[in-house]
Amino acid sequence: MHQPDPQKLSLNTATVRQQWTLDKIIEGCARHEIRGISPWRDQVAALGLSQTRQLIKQHQLTVTGYCRGGMFPGIDAAHRQRQWQDNQRAVDEALELDAACLVLVVGGLPAGSKDLAGARSQVRDGLSALLEYSRPRGMPLAIEPLHPMYAADRACVNTLAQANDLCDELGDDGLGLAVDLYHTWWDPNFQREITRAGLKRLLAFHICDWLNPTQDLLEDRGMMGDGVIDIRGFRQAVEALGYDGFHEVEIFSKSNWWTRDPDEVLRVCKARHQEHG
Amino acid sequence: MHQPDPQKLSLNTATVRQQWTLDKIIEGCARHEIRGISPWRDQVAALGLSQTRQLIKQHQLTVTGYCRGGMFPGIDAAHRQRQWQDNQRAVDEALELDAACLVLVVGGLPAGSKDLAGARSQVRDGLSALLEYSRPRGMPLAIEPLHPMYAADRACVNTLAQANDLCDELGDDGLGLAVDLYHTWWDPNFQREITRAGLKRLLAFHICDWLNPTQDLLEDRGMMGDGVIDIRGFRQAVEALGYDGFHEVEIFSKSNWWTRDPDEVLRVCKARHQEHG
Q: What is the spatial order of strands in the sheet that A247-249 belongs to?
């Protein structure tokens, strides 16, 4: 099948977060027949966890991921302890929302540090400790490798290979990958590493497009079809491994999609998912 | 030795290109006792090739690299033919200037293309053809892996591993790497890949810093010490392999260093090279 299953579209709520509160986003998904949703913690906190759970159930949406835990490296043990506790709360919230996984943005360099290898060690240690909490509770953790341009400030896990290495080391029970094409489309080892990951580790699949030129490091992601990523080819590559989960659209777009009528944004997401996804 | 040899500092002329023409830059290097220089083709064309050669000789500067050849992928054969001819001229100019190497920025996706693997094949083919010209003339080609954020528009060779793979495939006679820390500092395989490259392939070593946050994808590079790169650690890593070539400073900085008195920029380059290089 060339076109994607429209039932597999999921909306990462960041895509319309500037226009709508979470209740409006949930209702928007239902109205536009988008069956998956991936909410952010601050939006859930604003709406209330139980209210969020109730609205999502009411509209029978699938929570394809919960954004987000991680941010493991810290300048001292007290920071890391606070982060560990916060990550436990994130696991609890993800469980409450029946999320498919807790997405992990693992964190970059602690303030003032140039020790990238040290930060990566802290990620491994923090992840190992969090797994002791998440595994018995049955909440899968999805390591999301971020584009290398975020190595300093957001995530020092920058390739699928690094994420696979972590799964190898820590065991892939309750641990896997969130494969976001925005972060990984450039990777010459993409095919090798998703094959190495295999179906069991493919916990989430995120799509959007890389604009050429890109105006902003963080908030200039493109709608599917407006950039250079062969989204269909990548989607077929993960499906060839047996992946039949959702295709989650996550677009940070300060000067374009965040300024538009959110109903239009959802209509375009649906159409572009069919055309380019 | 902890501090770098000050005689090993080289100036990539892009660092002060907004303030000075090439003749002024050459004279500035001499005045500040910066012994290496790496000029760009457009600046050389503006000053004239023989005039550039003469001024550089007069001031006894070492040309640590010539910027730049490459841009191999093209939308059609005619484009690639023109590019091949232009790359031959770049080799000739590099020879005329006694450059240590011709630096190659290999090019990204052809206009309208989403075929990254195809672009990478075109790079291999274009490089193979150019080697037939450069090898008998004795001009080494230095593949510069660019940061993955430039995969679409500038270079689809984004890791040291890819560059090493090209050297393996095409033979490393007259072919090697330009290792620029701005592009490679995030790479978890940095140590493995420079070791794999070995002394023979280490044709150039470029330094500057990664600012956190970075405001612009292209023109917000940092002065050594202002960012998060452990420049000293990386320099010692290449020197541990026997590298004793220059440390070339290349800073594109639209809103900071390009707006300053260029004599101040060179003074700061020298001081920061000693302090952080």
A: A62-63, A36-38, A9-12, A247-249, A202-207, A175-180, A141-143, A102-105, A66-70
